[in-house]
Amino acid sequence: VEGGHALENSLDNLRLLHARGVRYRTLTWNNGNDWADACCSPPRHGGLTDFGREVVRELNRLGILVDVSHASDATVAAVLETSAAPVIASHSAARALARHPRNLTDAQVRAIARSGGVVGVNFYSAFLDARFAAAVEAIDREAAALERRLAASAGPGPAREEARAWRRARIAALDPVPLDTLLDHIDHLVRVAGPDHVGLGSDFDGVAALPAGIRDAADLPRITDGLLRRGHRAEDVEKILGLNWLRVLREVAG
Question: Which of 199, 192, 210, 179 has its CA nearest to residue 95?
Answer without folding.
Answer: 192
